[in-house]
Write a structure and sequence with these properties.
Blueprint: E1 7-8, E2 14-15, H1 23-30, H2 37-43, H3 49-54, E3 62-66, H4 70-80, E4 91-95, H5 102-115, H6 121-136, H7 138-153, E5 158-162, E6 185-186, E7 197-198, H8 203-217, E8 223-229, H9 241-252, E9 256-263, H10 268-278, E10 284-291, H11 295-301, E11 309-315, E12 318-320, H12 321-331, E13 336-340, E14 343-347, E15 362-363, E16 366-370, E17 375-378, E18 384-385
Parallel strand pairs: 3-4, 4-5, 5-8, 8-9, 9-10, 10-11, 11-13, 12-14, 13-16, 14-17
Antiparallel strand pairs: 1-2, 6-7, 15-16, 17-18
Helix pairs in contact: 4-7, 7-8, 8-9, 11-12
Length: about 375
């Protein structure tokens, strides 16, 4: 076998480019099963800068893109079309913040303070470029082309969408300030320095770009996992039947919809729209309510028909036992209700504790599970149980 050409850097380490590999090497790579590719990546960490920057996850099987960064989508399209790496992709991970390149990582800590100033012209330039891409719908076209490529490869299984980036925090330390009147996202620390507020970059509207692309490309994926998703009420109104059709097409083709919904409003319109979209799903639905998931909100959801809701997760909220009981009796569908760092109040003293360690009352066939950090407050008892 011919050996790939290599060069010696100043530090003495040898590296090579993927383009310099002989064809027989790529043929061997193509025969690797997906489980072998992580090891291959460790052995060829220095090959091909674009590939290294694109595959930020630990496995070749995950392709991450940033929805508000046109170059990221375009680069991902090139990778998806690659005869070797494109066939390995199983999951498309979509983040909604700008991703810096490797060189940015080196100078982030020194530039952070300067760039968080509100009068920084780079912020205005960024927003202008982003708005132009939205107006031209270039992101929708690029996403559609990407998904068509993945569909033709026939290997894609799931899509993960997150408002805060992926789990690879070092690549998502953005230092743009929160704009007045906008909802910001708090980012994790980078090299010991505090996080900063950023704009969500119209991420509720641009979520629609992904939904449109999924619908137009007619790609069939098994799972759609969405974290911290605010509903785009302005776009998903009765004047946008086409957009609702796109959502229906995507939701109805899923085997599993895992939706973490950020509750920014307690009014019935937002909750009703959420229920309307969930009703489109034909597969199993797991719904996680973040924020103001109170008893009133559960009462509104209980009036809707959600036949495929299997798991309801309530995160960092306080709900009454009666609200959960009414929700289960009203819908009759969820099998599991998880309380995650939440408080369940006004629990009747006659409720039976099932299991030696866990509080697992059953209401109308739905099992209530308390995850770590949750508490139970009895209605007529001595106190609460951690």
């Amino acid at each position: 076998m011919t050996t790939a050409s290599s060069t010696t850097s100043a530090g003495g380490a040898q590296s090579f480019k993927l383009s310099s590999c002989p064809p027989e090497v790529l043929e061997l790579i193509a025969e690797c099963v997906p489980e072998d590719l992580p090891s291959l990546r460790l052995a060829s960490r220095e090959c091909n800068l674009k590939t290294r920057c694109t595959f930020t996850s630990h496995f070749f099987t995950t392709l991450p893109i940033m929805l508000c960064y046109e170059e990221s989508i375009a680069t991902a399209l090139e990778v998806a079309a690659h005869p070797v790496f494109g066939l390995a992709i199983r999951t498309l991970e979509v983040g909604l913040n700008v991703i810096p390149d490797d060189k940015d990582l080196e100078r982030m800590s020194s530039e952070r303070i300067r760039r968080v100033q509100k009068d920084d012209p780079s912020i205005a330039v960024l927003h202008k470029e982003r708005q132009q891409m939205i107006t031209d719908e270039r992101d929708t076209r690029l996403l559609t082309a990407l998904l068509v490529t993945l569909r033709e490869a026939g290997k894609i299984q799931s899509v993960r969408l997150t408002a805060g980036g992926s789990d690879h925090d070092r690549l998502y330390d953005i230092f743009y300030p929160r704009m007045p009147g906008s909802r910001g996202l708090r980012l994790r620390q980078f090299k010991g320095r505090g996080g900063s507020w950023i704009r969500p970059y119209d991420h509720d509207v641009r979520t629609d770009a992904l939904i449109k692309a999924l619908s137009i490309s007619q790609i069939h994926i098994q799972d759609l996992s969405v974290r911290d998703w605010p509903l785009p009420l302005d776009a998903l109104n009765r004047e946008s039947p086409t957009l609702l059709t796109h959502y229906s097409n995507v939701f109805s083709s899923l085997k599993h919809l895992n939706l973490a919904y950020c509750v920014y409003s307690e009014d019935g319109e937002e909750v009703g729209l959420l229920a309307e979209l969930l009703a489109k799903a034909n597969g199993m639905v797991t719904l996680k309510l973040n924020g103001n998931a109170n008893s009133e909100l559960l009462g509104t959801l209980a009036k809707e028909d959600l036949p495929h809701l299997r798991t309801l997760n309530i995160f960092q909220s306080t709900v009454t036992f009666a609200a959960l009981e009414n929700f289960v009796q009203g819908t009759g569908y969820p099998k599991i209700i998880e309380l995650d760092k939440a408080r369940l109040t006004e629990v009747p003293s006659g409720i039976i504790l099932q299991g030696p360690h866990n509080f697992k009352p059953v209401i109308g066939g739905a099992e209530i599970r308390l995850k770590p950090g949750s508490r139970v407050v009895w209605k007529d008892g001595p106190g609460d149980i951690p």
